[in-house]
Amino acid sequence: MTVLRRLVLVLALMFWQGGFTFYASVVVPVGSDFLGSHVDQGWITRSVTNYLNLSGAVALALWFVDIAPLQRTKAPSR
Fold first, then answer.
1. Cα–chain-centroid distance for residue 3?
2. CB–CB of 62/12 below 8 Å?
């Protein structure tokens, strides 16, 4: 079960970072060329950012679910 949980965590992080990287390196320049200005591209970026933030929130929530049991089993350091 731990292996499957970690696989889902890594896939979620890769989806988030890969989406962000693809958008920044491909979609923004192509959109700016197609639309003719960076100002118009900004309105599209504003909308897409909501989806990128949502995928990041999901990835971070999965990360928290993965590390939360470790915090409960850890002995207090005194």
1. 21
2. yes
Task: Say if CB 57 and CB 19 are below 8 A apart.
Answer: no
- Alpha helices for the chain (secondary structure H): 2-22, 28-35, 38-73
Q: How far is CA 16 from CA 57, 63, 74, 76, in A?
A: 9, 13, 29, 34
Distance (Å, rounded) from C-alpha 37 to C-alpha 34? 8
Q: What's the rounded Cα separation, in Å, for the pair 61 and 67?
A: 10
The model's confidence at residue 76, banded by pLDDT at 50, 70 and 90, is low
Question: What pTM, to 2 d.p., does this model score?
Answer: 0.69
